[in-house]
Amino acid sequence: MSLSQDHDAVLQQWRADEAAVRARLRPGISGIARPEQVQDLSGLQILQAMLEGQLPPPPICDSLDFMLVSGSFGEAVFQGQPMRRHYNPLGTVHGGWYATLLDSALGCAVHTTMPVGRAYTTLEFKVNMVRALTEQVPLVRAVGRVLHSGRQVATAEASLLGHDGRLYAHASTTCLVFERPA
Description:
Structural class: alpha+beta
Distance between the termini: 55 Å
Strand order of the largest sheet: 1-2-4-5-6-3
Oligomer: single chain
Helix content: 25-40%
Radius of gyration: 16 Å
Number of helices: 5
């Protein structure tokens, strides 16, 4: 199998992964989960409920054409399609789109490590854009992985990758961990 065929296979798998998640989403369900829906769930259980269509995906995903495609303890993967409506005046995808996708992967990776009753908020977030994105790139994935999740602080890193393995950006975060307010 040639390298081009390998890349085509990855792209087909990514599209299939997205289609599988979308098939589980309930039509007309949007918004954010109500507090009573998540109060007895760990962060990982919340992400899994979103992936199963039991909880709504965040509205920002519709606005910016990306979605959560997988989550496991310490890892979250978001996938997005760069589109012309995401362009800046220079004719490439705006850095804010990169940042939002990466921030989502970072935050949700940290979220998967939160036990019931614990929450987090971002203290610091850094993005390095290393390659321009255009609508010619069919899909990208932001893969976030936790480096440390402690009682008060969590850190994570993420990469924004094309189906061909190209790195478009990478990011890191530091989050404050605390008791979830009642």
